[in-house]
């Protein structure tokens, strides 16, 4: 009974753990202590849960953790409790997934649009230029992809100023964390089942997250469409990958639930061990490949030599299903995101007016840098913008003072230097107090969150086999940090509590 007397009112406890919006109240020191004890207990329990359920990543401190499975594991960084998220925005984000899937597919078929939109970028960005070269080669030979598989993730933030859900970006290659995000929801549900009463939080308000099984199912359905029982799925990976367990979750589901074998190969290995037979069949290490699933190849660092580019071209030339194809990959570039946000462009690709309106509603301001007026405004008020190059994987964007300096410098440079970037309206989510657990240490900080909705699309000629949302990834980061990647070390994995 003494324990209950010592505890502050339930709402106050919940808001302290969950959100900075609600008043914290003047909790007595004893209650503070009590609360700290609950948090400590939960943090330890959660870390143990991660270890015994495979919510793990390779530990930076162990050099072999990125190459040797089972060595140097640490729990994935996570938020101790799920973050509140309005059910209306959750519904809106989920409804957008099939529309974006459809849009990607339509845009991918318009090779001229992709080449034209990226033509100025290609002058100044070697990486984009190399991707466009492969794309152009496929256009020359009229390469058609009858079976098309997209495993996307569309990321959003809630803008506090306008109280709206705005898209950060759409990932069409290497959309990460389908494996681990499902587990975080599970972890939070477990914690709330045990401590939810004391915290005033109901575990039933955490939506089910089937991202891992649904992505695995989409891959297996693509394998089925390929229709060769002896073929394997090939996951293209980086030589060092500390996020390998996220990938192994998919591999495991593919094997256990669908009886499909997956091989993991680096681009260099594909180059050394791969060939395309005269009939188009991709054979790697003696095995016929049905689906090439890229968890690498999205960054210039993935192509340290010509060998890696040869591998990318080889796979593209084959009749294996590419997830993504070079076209799908290009549709996911930030330049195309900006082009699609221009007036009357969506109408070129979609017929349904309601769908178009839904997409447009979630578009933030996006500008190309040939717009002199916006460049001028961004130099004056850099904090209202984000400057983005054509890169993926986090840590590449430019903010604030650096943004101003970069724009001023690029403007002075002769030629097309500005064309490598796009400008985006900066989104300001409301910050809340959160307990974060990283490397076994729990700390509290002001945070903001980004919600990603996974989407899967599979098509065989005229037949749309699959077009769905597939669960979610919530990432939460300290609000003073600009970038948001979990793998890049900026954010923690989270889930949502619907309000
Ligand atoms: P990447 O492909 O590298 O993930 P993003 O466009 O997702 O590139 O940007 C990386 C991170 O930068 C995001 O996760 C988010 O935290 C932050 N960010 C990106 N765009 C904006 C924006 N318009 N407003 C606020 N933050 C942004
Ligand atoms: Mg991205
Ligand atoms: Mg991103």
Strand content: 15-25%
Question: Which ligands, by name, code or SMILES, are bound?
Answer: adenosine-5'-diphosphate, magnesium ion
CATH topology of the largest domain: Rossmann fold
Which radius of gyration do the C-alpha atoms yield?
23 Å
Classify the helix fraction into a percent range.
40-55%
CATH C-level class of the largest domain is Alpha Beta
CATH superfamily of the largest domain: Glutathione synthase, substrate-binding domain superfamily, eukaryotic
Shape: globular
Number of helices: 18
**CATH architecture assignment name of the largest domain:** 3-Layer(aba) Sandwich
Largest sheet entry = 7 strands, antiparallel
Count of DSSP E strands?
A: 20
Cα(first) to Cα(last) distance is 31 Å
In summary, what is this structure?
With 499 residues, the protein is of the alpha+beta class.
Describe this structure in words.
With 499 residues, the protein is of the alpha+beta class. It folds into two domains: 79-364 and 427-498, Glutathione synthase, substrate-binding domain superfamily, eukaryotic (Rossmann fold); 365-426, Glutathione synthase lid domain (Dna Ligase, domain 1, 2-Layer Sandwich), CATH 3.30.1490. The chain contains 18 helices and 20 strands. The protein has helices at residues 2-6, 10-18, 29-53, 87-108, 111-117, 119-124, 126-140, 178-199, 211-226, 244-258, 267-273, 306-317, 326-331, 334-340, 346-349, 353-361, 372-380, 400-412; strands at residues 56-58, 73-75, 78-79, 83-85, 147-159, 164-171, 232-236, 262-265, 274-276, 282-284, 287-294, 321-323, 366-368, 385-389, 421-425, 432-438, 441-460, 463-478, 491-494, 496-498. Strands 3, 5, 6, 16, 17, 18 and 19 form a seven-stranded antiparallel β-sheet that branches. A hairpin with a 4-residue loop joins β5 and β6. α8 (178-199) runs antiparallel to α9 (211-226), α9 (211-226) crosses α10 and α17 packs across α18 (400-412). The chain is globular, with a radius of gyration of 23 Å.
């Amino acid at each position: 009974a003494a324990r209950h007397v010592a505890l502050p009112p339930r709402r106050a406890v919940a808001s302290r753990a969950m959100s900075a919006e609600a008043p914290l109240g003047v909790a007595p020191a004893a209650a503070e202590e009590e609360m700290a004890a609950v948090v400590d207990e939960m943090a330890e329990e959660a870390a143990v849960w991660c270890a015994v359920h495979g919510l793990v990543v390779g530990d930076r401190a162990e050099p072999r953790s990125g190459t040797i499975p089972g060595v140097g594991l640490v729990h994935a960084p996570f938020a101790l409790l799920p973050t509140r998220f309005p059910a209306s925005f959750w519904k809106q984000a989920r409804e957008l997934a099939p529309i974006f899937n459809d849009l990607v597919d339509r845009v991918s078929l318009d090779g001229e649009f992709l080449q034209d939109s990226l033509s100025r970028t290609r002058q100044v960005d070697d990486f984009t230029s190399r991707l466009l070269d492969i794309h152009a080669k496929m256009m020359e030979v009229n390469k058609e992809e009858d079976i098309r598989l997209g495993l996307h993730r569309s990321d959003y933030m809630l803008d506090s100023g306008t109280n709206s859900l705005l898209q950060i970006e759409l990932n069409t290659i290497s959309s990460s964390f389908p494996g681990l995000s499902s587990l975080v929801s599970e972890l939070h549900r477990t914690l709330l089942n045990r401590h939810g009463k004391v915290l005033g939080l109901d575990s039933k308000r955490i939506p089910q997250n089937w991202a891992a099984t649904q992505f695995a199912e989409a891959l297996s359905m693509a394998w089925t469409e390929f229709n060769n029982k002896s073929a394997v799925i090939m996951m293209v990976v980086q030589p060092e990958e500390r996020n390998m367990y996220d990938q192994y979750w998919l591999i495991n589901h593919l094997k256990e639930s669908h009886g499909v074998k997956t091989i993991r190969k680096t681009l260099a290995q594909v180059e050394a061990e791969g060939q395309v037979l005269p009939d188009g069949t991709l054979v790697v290490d003696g095995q016929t490949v049905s689906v090439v699933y890229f968890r690498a190849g999205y960054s210039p660092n993935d192509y340290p030599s010509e060998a890696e580019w040869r591998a990318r071209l080889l796979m593209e030339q084959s009749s294996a299903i590419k997830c993504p194809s070079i076209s799908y990959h290009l549709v996911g570039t930030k330049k195309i995101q900006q082009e699609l946000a221009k007036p009357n462009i969506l109408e070129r690709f979609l017929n349904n007016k309601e769908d178009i309106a839904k997409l447009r509603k979630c578009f933030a301001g996006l500008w190309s840098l040939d717009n002199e007026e916006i460049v001028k405004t961004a130099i004056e008020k850099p904090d209202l913008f984000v400057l983005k190059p054509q890169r993926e994987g986090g840590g590449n964007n430019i903010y604030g003072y650096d943004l101003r300096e970069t724009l001023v410098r690029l403007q002075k440079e002769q030629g097309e230097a500005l064309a490598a970037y796009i400008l985006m309206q900066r989104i300001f989510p409301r910050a809340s107090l959160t307990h974060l657990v990283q490397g076994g240490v729990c700390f509290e900080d002001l945070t903001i969150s980004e919600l990603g909705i996974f989407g899967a699309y599979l098509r065989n000629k005229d037949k749309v086999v699959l077009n769905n949302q597939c669960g979610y990834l919530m990432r939460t980061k300290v609000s003073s940090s600009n970038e948001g990647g979990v793998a890049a070390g900026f954010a923690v994995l989270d889930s949502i509590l619907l309000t």
